[in-house]
Amino acid sequence: MTLPHALRYNLPLVVKVVAKLFVMQLIRGLHNISRFRGRLAEGCVLTIGNFDGIHLGHLQVLQYLAQKAQKLQLPSVVMVFEPLPIEYFAPKQAPVRLMNLREKLQAFEQTQIDFVLCVRFDEAFASLSAAEFVERVLVKGMAVKHLVIGDDFRFGQGRRGDFTFLQQQGAELGFAVTEMPTFYLEGARVSSTRIRQQLALPNLDEVAKLLGTPFAFSGRVIHGQKLGRTLGFPTLNLNPKRLQMPVQGVFAVQVAGLKTQPVLGVANIGLRPTVAGLQPSIEVHLFDWSQDVYGRHVSVRLCHFIRAEQRFANLAALQSQIRLDVAQAREFFVEHDTTLP
Length: 341
What we know:
Layout (H helix, E strand, L loop, with lengths): L4 H15 L5 E4 L15 E5 L7 H17 L3 E7 L2 H5 L11 H9 L5 E6 L2 H4 L3 H12 L2 E7 L12 H11 L2 E5 L3 E2 L2 E2 L2 H9 L3 H8 L4 E7 L4 H4 L5 E4 L9 E8 L6 E8 L10 E6 L10 E11 L7 H21 L6
Parallel strand pairs: 1-4, 2-3, 2-5, 3-4, 5-6
Antiparallel strand pairs: 7-8, 9-10, 9-14, 10-13, 11-12, 11-14, 12-13
Helix pairs in contact: 6-7, 8-9
């Protein structure tokens, strides 16, 4: 099932405009549901999932959720987990995240969702059977009246719960269930896995199609080694609040959060092998920028892939390459009619 062409590509913009009428609220943990009991007294319309890298398939679910909630005159709720279930059960095999929690919440704020319930995925939660999850969490905890799930949704200890089980439970306990079909684009399933694969190439145009918007990430500006200043290219060092980035290399970027309009620049995402880097590093050189902005949260949008990260023989060779990277990024923005400082 796919959305009509016009709606499919304008969906993020449409949702963003409508969302200004709503104020999304975050519920931190199942134990805090009681604080919102007033607004949830009549029940809710709920969906559950990881929602990593909120893409066109996720937006289809969220749009349906909001429409169903409006029709039933009930609040809409999205349940997410920290850590993600795969990170709890098999941390070494867990795929790299497309979004950290902060970015995910910011994305939800651009939709019509009323509440995001962030559940701590721990031993106690993981040990709940499918029946216990339905009774304790969905019915007694959330007073669910309508549940919206993806067609691959599994839950409960041993992943024994599925759509058929939920239908049976709903008939007995008083809630309805809708199973959303997989969202396809150009004949292939839209998924977080597919986006990770395209980012690894990196194919930014394809990623933007799948997300409905160019790939971006956020982070706080922190103090670094200030090596860029000695090379003549001062950088913003970012803490992205994640152990690994889903993309590496040098990119032309737009940085939002510093001025009214995004600031253009070039970013290096990786490990900085030339200076023996070991931890993931994000350094952004902004064109003709000299202000200190330590502590500010910024959003970095990837616009164009320039090259893979590489090791240089010395700092002079690195400096020479950065000069070429900056020139190539500036040329890209000129060719694409993007205003330069």
